[in-house]
Amino acid sequence: MHTSAIKRRFGSWHGALRAFEAFVNKRGCRDALPRRARATARPSRDINWRLRTTVLIRDNCLCRMCGASPAKDSAVTLHVDHIVPWSKGGQTVLANLQTLCAVCNIGKGDWQMRLRRGGS
Predict the structure, then answer these.
(1) Among 20, 50, 60, 113, which residue carries the largest CB count within 10 Å?
(2) What is the pLDDT of residue 86?
(3) At 9, which helix (H) or strand (E)?
């Protein structure tokens, strides 16, 4: 609304605010005014060292996709990765983490999620 329209209708900006206050009080809408929604704190996506170690021990320091291990090949780098991606609601919990080598982790993309859902 342009300032000239406000002046024509309410006389001034202050008059417009008083009219709005009267409208809200008359209709009992004070509680219906939008309040800023509280952001729900989402757990961190970072995997702490203790959880990372637990996943590696559980998976015997082997890539779950190809079986690569630093014990067999010193060039292999292992990653601890989310099965259901954090960006899609996956949690950073032991059941949602797996050990993958760097090659498999970078190459898998989103195909693993599609397979779990039965898509192609």
Answers:
(1) 113
(2) 87
(3) helix 3-10
